[in-house]
Amino acid sequence: ATFTGDARFHRATFTGDVQFDRATFTGDARFHSARFETASRLGPLVCGERVVLDGAVFDQPVTVEMAAREVSCARTRWASTATLHLRYAEVDLRDAVLEYPVVVAARPDPFPSLYSYDPLSEAELSGRKPGVRLTSVGGVDAAHLALHTIDLSVCRFAGAIHLDQLRVDGWCTFATTPTDRGRRFPWRWSRRNTLTEEHHWRVRTARRPARAHGWTTPPQDAPELPPAAVATLYRQVRKSLEDGKNEPDAADFYYGECEMRRNDTTRPQGERALLTAYWALSGYGLRATRALVWLGAAMAATVAVMVLWGLPVDEPKPTTTGRQAAVGHQVTLTTDTPDPVNPTGPLRDRVTSERFEKALRVVINSVVFRSSGQDLTTIGTYTEMVSRLAEPVLLGLAVLAVRSRVKR
Q1: CB atoms within 10 A of CB 385
Q2: Average pLDDT in the 270-294 region?
Q3: b/e per residue, 120-153, with b = 16+ CB within 10 A?
Q4: pLDDT-based confidence at 335, cuts 50/70/90?
C-alpha cells in the first residue's frame, strides 16, 4: 500500500495483528497516541518523512521495521519486549516508558518483504546514509534499553536514569573532540570519545569564540548542565562500557569525567589542583606520550644539572693514615674519604663526554635501578633525590596509560 501525503492514525486502536507490510508513506506517518493491542510486527515500511509514535502504546511483544527520515517515540509505552530495526532514521526516545527490554538496532541491508525475498524499495530516501542516529534518551529508564550500531554523536543523555545499565553493543559511535589545531599553535585536543553534553558546556562557557571552535553548538531546548552533572553522566556511561568489557573506550569517558571535575568550581581548590597536575603530566593516566615527554624532559634536565654542578671535579680517593708502632704492638689505621670538590671554571668546560656518561648513568640508575653509587656534590645529591622520587612516577604513569588502552 502507498499513502500519498501525510497519513494520520491519531488515537487509533488496532485490535488485530496490523502490520503495514511493504507500506510506503510519501509524507508523515502519524500514530500519535495510537494503541497496538495484539500487533506482533509493525512493518517493514518506508516513510519519506517522519514516523510519529509519540504517546503510542504497544501491549504485546513487537518487532518494528522501518526506513524513515525520523522516528519519534517520545512518551511511547512499551508494555512488553520490543525490537526496533531501523534504517536512515533519527530516533527520539525522550520520556519513553520501557517496562521490558527494548532493543534499537540499525539494519545494514534493505528490508525484505514478509512474504517475498525482494527488497523493499527505498526510493523515498535515496541519497541519504542508511545509518541510525539517536537524538535523546532523556527521561528514559535505560536499564531496559539496548543499542546496537547506533550513532550517539548528538544523543542527549541528561535526564535518563540507570545509564550505568545501558547496553551499548556493536559499532556505536559517540561525539569526538575537535581534532584540528587551534589558532594558538601547537595547541590541539587529543582525540577521544565524548558526550554531546560536554560539547554544549564548552560552547556555553567559552570566553572567546575561538575556544568553541569545533565543538557542537547546543540547540535552544538543550538544558544548561553544570560540570558536576556532566561528570555524573560520564561516570554512568563509563560504568556501562566497563560492564560490557569495553575498557579502552570506557577510558575516554573516565577522561571526560575528570575534565568535568577539574572544571567544577564547586569542588575544593586542592582537589582541582591535583587534577590539573594529573592532567598536565599524563592526561589522567591515559596519555602515554605526554608522560614520556615529561619523563624525557625531566631526565634531560637532571643530566644537565649533573654535568654542570652535580659531579665533582675528580673522584674522591680514600686516604689511609696511621702511626707506626713497635713490633708486636697493635696498629690503628684511619681511612678518610675527602668531600667531593665542586666543579669550577666556565660551564662549557664542564661539558665533557666523560661527565655526560657519568651523569647519564646516574639518571638511568635513579629511574630504574634506584641506586647509582656515584659520588656527588651537594647539589648533585639533592638532584638525585628528586630524580629518584619524580621520574619513576612519570614512568609508572606512562605504563598505566598504555595498559588502559590495551586492556580488554
Answers
A1: 11
A2: 93
A3: bebebbeeeebbbbbbbbbbbbbebbbbbbbbbb
A4: low
Q: Which residues of 175-194 are buried (b: 16+ CB within 10 A; e: fewer)?
A: bebbeeeeeeeeeebeebbb
The torsion region of residue 162 among left (phi > 0), alpha (psi -120 to 50) and beta comes to left
Strands 193-194 and 173-176 come out as antiparallel
Q: Does the pLDDT at position 408 exceed 60?
A: no
Would you state the pLDDT for residue 323?
65
What is the residue extent of each domain of the chain?
A: 1-136, 288-316+341-406
Dihedral angle at the C-alpha atoms of 270, 273, 278, 279, nearest 10 degrees? 140
342-356 core/surface letters (b: 16 or more CB in 10 A; e: else) = ebeeeeeebeeeebb
Of 61, 80, 64, which Cα lies nearest the Cα of 72? Answer: 64
Average pLDDT, the chain: 87
More confident residue, 390 or 261: 261
Name the strand (E) or helix (H) holding 51.
strand 41-52
Paired strand residues for 23: 45
Say what the pLDDT of residue 185 is. 46
Q: DSSP states of 374-386 as a string?
A: ----HHHHHHHHH
Grid cell of 12 as nine digits: 487509533
